[in-house]
Amino acid sequence: MVVLMPALVATEFKPWIFFESENLRVSARFLGDFFPPSVEGDFLLLVVKEAWRTIAIATAGMCLALVLAIPLTLASTRSLSVSTLSGRMHRLPFAIRQLIRWLLIILRSIPELIWALVFVRVVGLGPAAGVLAIGLTYAGMLGKVYGEILESGDAHCAVSILRNGGSRLQAFFFGLLPQNATELTSYTVYRWECAIRSSAVLGFVGAGGLGQQMDNSMKMFNGGEVATLLIVFMMLVGLADLLSGWLRKIMQ
Amino acid sequence: MTKPQHLRSDTKQNPNPWLRWDCSVCWVSLGLLVLTILSFWSLDLQLSRLLSVDSLQRMGRFLGELLSPNIESKFLLKLASASLETLAMSALGSLIAVFFGLLLALPASRSYTQDPARWRFLTRLVLNALRSIPELVWAALLLISAGLGPFAGTLALAFHTTGVLGRLFAESIENAPQAAAQAMRAQGVPEGRVSMGEQYSCGSSLRCCRRRRFRPDARLSYGPFSDAGNQQHPDCDD
């Protein structure tokens, strides 16, 4: 209770605000507008277009993230270090690996929403900001998790290849990749699903897609449109859920 | 009579597994490739504008500004109170979510095989709806009835997290060891107290879920719903 009280004050926790007559009227009107959801031809077409845009932003963002994350992972994985074969890692490679780790931490510790705000200022309103935001944040996450997956697996094959004079790339492709491929792909698919969710949200800061449309409808208090958008949104998330579940199943 | 599957194959099909018609991995990869190309093609990313001198200059200026953080004491003080507010929002949001998550998880789970679980479908539907709408969208919706300020944000967190936790709790109740609950039912303990017993037996997984949810919540407080957000998002001041 001692902790709760200040928290309640700080968050201005006033449930009765809902039941003030003014608020109640506005909310009732807005919620009343939800039924029936708007199904005009023009609007539906727009919604479908925006839903596709949301998926496209997520996919393009993931593509960018992979392009960034794969080289960074290769450069930072400890299992591919030649100098650890004979005792400790040398100082320079250690420093480079540590540097890349910090870079990955910085990339993923800034949420995509904030990246999107930054990029909306720089490149203007539109999907480019969303793609860049998702690309950078997800590059950080993918890079970190890929590294962890590769390092937690059995390093024996990779070490033998390196010891016998194979290159690092050979050690990766023939030693590390085969045993970790399933885990890596299933994590990537999972992240793609997350990217779809977050690209829908990024629209709120002007990065295109469903979120932007929802923001517009909300500002105009158009309940019917908001209801349609919410339904499409839930369907999209459900679809991504199903698809990624199915993909992970066939990969086993 | 047709031959069994494993005898029929291999005679006509290409021996290379990558060139067969039933290579699901190939089709999925092809589909993903097409999806990626279509995405880039349809998005009109205006890469030329992105890489123009003007936008690079702006990016550089912005990064330069990032390197000299504002450390005026007045601003820092404001940030400190904003951080406290963020913390309070996520704590309270999680607390409400744990309460309602547990409340909804009980009807949403089938705890033993003969359990009719009449409300399972309906509560799962509600939980999924709560979960699939992100916090930010909830917050935007709640702004209309709760007004600007941290209260709408707290509730938005609570709504979304209730969906997430409710599903997790329901699943861990369904996966929990059944012995204790069976024993209680056999002794004629009423159903409400049996479910309390169940919650003890999956206690540790419930606790860890709660802790995990607390962290991402702190992020949402960003946005027009709290002071911490307004510092960075001047567009919302009007």
Strand and helix map with partners:
The complex is a heterodimer of chains A (252) and B (238).
Chain A: H1 4-10, H2 21-33, H3 41-76, H4 91-109, H5 112-123, H6 127-152, H7 156-163, H8 168-202, H9 210-219, H10 223-251
Helix pairs in contact in A: 3-6, 3-8, 3-10, 4-6, 5-6, 6-8, 7-8, 8-10, 9-10
Chain B: H1 5-8, H2 24-43, H3 47-50, H4 53-66, H5 73-105, H6 120-132, H7 135-146, H8 150-175, H9 179-186, H10 191-201, H11 203-220, H12 227-232
How much helicity do the residues of chain A have?
over 70%
Mean pLDDT of chain A: 84
Please tally the β strands of chain B and state the result.
0
**In oligomeric terms, what are we looking at?**
heterodimer
The number of E-state strands of chain A comes to 0
**Residue-averaged pLDDT of chain B:** 73
Looking at this structure, what is the CATH superfamily of chain A?
MetI-like
Are there runs of chain B of 5+ residues with pLDDT below 50, and where? 215-238
Largest sheet of chain B: none
The CATH topology annotation of the domain at 76-237 in chain B reads as: MetI-like fold
Do you know the CATH topology of chain A? MetI-like fold
Label the structural class of chain B. Answer: mainly alpha
Low-confidence stretches of chain A: none
Helix content of chain B: over 70%
- In CATH, the architecture of the domain at 76-237 in chain B is Orthogonal Bundle
The CATH level-2 architecture of chain A is identified as Orthogonal Bundle
